[in-house]
Amino acid sequence: MAVAALLRRGALSSSCRHDVYIRCLLSDSDLHPLVNSANLRFWRGNHNSGKFDFTDMTHPHLWYPNAREKKRNVFLHVGPTNSGKTHNALKRLEASSSGVYCGPLRLLAREVAERLNKASVPCNLTTGQEREEIEGAKHSSVTVEMADVTTEYQCAVIDEIQMVGCRTRGCSFTRALLGLCSDELHVCGDPAVVPIVQRLLEATDDVVTIQYYERLSPLVPLKSTLGSFSNIKAGDCMVTFSRREIYKLKKKIEMAGKHLCSVVYGSLPPETRTKQATMFNDDASDLNVLVASDAIGMGLNLNISRIIFSTLKKFDGICTRELTVPEIKQIAGRAGRYGSKFPVGEVTCLDAEDLPLLHSSLKSPSPIIERAGLFPTFDLLSVYSRLHGTDFLHPILERFLDKAKLSPDYFIADCEDMLKVAAIVDELPLALHDKYVFCQSPVDVRDDISIQGLTQFAENYAKKGTVRLKEIFTPGTLRVPTTHNQLQELESVHKVLELYVWLSYRFDDSFPDRELAASQKSICSMLIEEYLERSGWQPQGQRRFLHTPRKLRQEYDASQLRGYFREIDERSK
C-alpha cells in the first residue's frame, strides 16, 4: 500500500510516520497529500534524489504552510524607545476582529491583555506560567514562545522584533515572524532590524511596508556626572548590573536621609517587580527613587526623570564587558516617558570616564542586525533520532546542530542551557518528547536550587508518572529573609515553584498541584516584598510598611502551605 495512503487513512501512528519518512523513498505522488505546493516545489528543487536531508534548514519559511497560504501585509514599525510605535500597532490590534500580541515578557503580555479587556475587546492571556481565558475572546496576548502558528488571525503584533538577533531567544521571534498566520502583521522594534526582516520576508512573498518613528519626548545626555549622592532627586533611577550592587546603592542613597528606594532586577518575581514599579510611580509613596538593573529596559511603565548609570560594564554570564550601543540606548530611553510628569528625560553617569561612551552611544545608530536566530523543530529532531536509532537527546542535539545547514541570514540559537538539561534527563527512562519538554522549561541552570528542583521533578515523573508538590517540599515555614543569601534562596524557591506551574501546563494531570504551587509562589513574592520594605532606612529609625507584617503572617498561616525546598531545609538543620 502506498505510504501516502496509509498516512491519509491514519493507519500509521505518529511514531510510525517518522519511521516511514526515513526508511522509504517517497515519490512526488506520495508527497503531494502531505505538503502544500510550496513545500513540493522545495522538495523537487532541492531533493531530486528522493532522499530528504533533515539537517537542511535553509528554507525555514516552509515550516509554516498555513502562513505561506496567505499573502500577508506586514507593517514594520521602527524607532527609538518612547516613540509610539507599539502604541500604533496595538490600535490596529484593538480594531481587528481577531488577533494576537506576541511580546518578549510576561509583564508586557499582561499589560496588553489588560489594555484590550479595558477597551471592551475580550482578550485571553497565555504565557508559559499563566492561562487566563475570557469568554468570547477572539484576541490573545502571549509571550512570543507561546505564539500559535496554526490559528488564523486578522491582525498580529510582534513587539521588540530586534530580538531576532538574540543568541538564546532569537529563534522564537523568527518563528513568530515567519509563522504567524494573519492578514496583517505589525512588527515593532529598533531600525537596526529592518534589513534582516526585509531579507527574511523576501522568501515569503509578503507585502512589507516600513514606518519610521521619532522619539515623542526629548532625551538629554548631561555633560556632568551626578557628583555627590546628595544630588539624587525624586524620579531618579540608578542603574547597575548585580543584585549585591543594587542593594549597596539602595543603602547608600537611603542613608542620606532624603529618599527611599524601590528596586527592580531580573531575578525578582515578576509580581514583585510590578509592585516595586507601581510604588515608585505613585506620587503618594515614599519610594521616589529607583535602583535597578537592565530589567527596566522593557516591560515596565516607569515615570523616570533621570537615568544614572553607576557603570557601563556588566557581566553577561561569560565575561565582563562594556554595554553595547543598543543596551545603552534601551536603558537611557526609559527616562522622560511621554505623557508622564517628567516630559524631558535626562541621562548621566557616576563616573566621568563613562561619559564619552554614553554620549557617543546615544548619538550612534544601533549596529545593523545581520542574522536571525533559528532552531530545529521537535519533529526534525524526532525523525533525526530515529534515523540514528537513539532517543538520547544530548547526542542528537549535538550531532544535528553540528551538521545543520543554514542560509547566511540565520544562525543556530545558543542551546548550551538546553544541552545541560539534556544531559540530566538522558539519565532517565523518558520518551524523547518528554525530554525535549524538560529541556525547553524555564530552568535557571546557573541556580543550584533550580537545577535540583528540575532534577527531582524529572526523576519523579519518570518513576511514577505523577509529581506531587509535597514530595519536593517538606513541612516547615517560609520566613521573611534577613540576609542577602536568604533573599537569594527565596528567589530560587520562587523559580522552582514557577517551574512546577510551567510543567503542569505541558504534562496536564502529571503535575496536579498547580494551584498549590501558584499559592506558594504568591507567598514567596509577598515575603520578598516584605524584605524590601524592611530594608528601607527611616530617618526616625522606624519602618513603615505598605502591608502590615501581622496581616502578611495571617495570610501565610491561613494558607497552610509547606515550607522551603528540601535542600534548603536540610542545610539549615
UniProtKB/TrEMBL annotation:
Its main location: mitochondrion. InterPro entries: DEXQc_SUV3, Helicase_C-like, P-loop_NTPase, RNA-DNA_Helicase, SUV3_C, Suv3_C_1, Suv3_DEXQc. Transmembrane segments: none annotated. Coiled coil: none annotated. Homodimer; in free form. Component of the mitochondrial degradosome (mtEXO) complex which is a heteropentamer containing 2 copies of SUPV3L1 and 3 copies of PNPT1. It catalyses: ATP + H2O = ADP + phosphate + H(+). Keywords: ATP-binding, Helicase, Hydrolase, Mitochondrion, Mitochondrion nucleoid, Nucleotide-binding, Nucleus, Transit peptide. It comes from Triticum aestivum. This is RNA helicase. The keyword Nucleus applies. Its cofactor is Mg(2+); Mn(2+). Residues 208-382 form the Helicase C-terminal domain. Its EC number is 3.6.4.13. It is an enzyme of class 3 (hydrolase). It is found in: Mitochondrion matrix, Mitochondrion nucleoid; Nucleus. It comes from the Eukaryota. PANTHER family: ATP-DEPENDENT RNA AND DNA HELICASE, ATP-DEPENDENT RNA HELICASE SUPV3L1, MITOCHONDRIAL-RELATED. One of its GO terms (molecular function) is hydrolase activity. The gene is LOC123113295. GO terms for biological process: mitochondrial RNA 3'-end processing. The lineage of its organism: Eukaryota, Viridiplantae, Streptophyta, Embryophyta, Tracheophyta. GO terms for cellular component: mitochondrial degradosome; mitochondrial nucleoid; nucleus.
